[in-house]
Specification:
By secondary structure, the chain is an alpha+beta fold. About 40% of the residues lie in helices and about 35% in strands. The chain has a 4-stranded antiparallel beta sheet.
Length: about 130
């Protein structure tokens, strides 16, 4: 129980430490600012994913892949500058043991920031559509 908490804290410290030194690089990075969105997704999964709610808690979260997606002309016209799909695995734990779970999301970036939408399942290692 303490290990996942420490791991999450360590990840946040790494993101915070790196972000202070990357402000100039962020201007040219189409995926700048994605890390906090991934962490927010994880938090949302813990609170709302059916497997986590049924089991009472989830842990062992891992982003298994992130894959760039084509931006449609309509999306580009509406200001989308980056788009990717991500897959995350986790383990829903209860008194009977743990059950693996997974979730998929599409992240889109525009001048307003990142947005997240559900995605159809993708291959967990390549992020290619299944």
């Amino acid at each position: 129980m303490i290990r996942p908490t420490l791991a999450a804290l360590f990840a946040c410290l790494l993101v915070a430490g790196c972000s202070a030194h990357r402000s100039q690089a962020d201007a040219s990075d189409p995926y700048a600012g994605l890390a906090p969105e991934i962490l927010a997704w994880r938090t949302d999964l813990q609170a709302s994913h059916p497997a986590c709610r049924k089991a009472g808690k989830c842990g062992e979260f891992e982003v298994t892949c992130k894959g760039a997606q084509d931006i449609t002309p309509q999306e580009r016209a509406s200001g989308v500058t980056a788009r990717l799909v991500a897959a995350m695995t986790f383990r829903a734990s209860d008194a009977a043991g743990g059950q693996p779970g997974s979730a998929f999301a599409t992240f889109s970036k525009s001048a307003a920031g990142w947005t997240r939408a559900p995605s159809p399942p993708v291959n967990l290692s390549s992020c290619a559509p299944v």
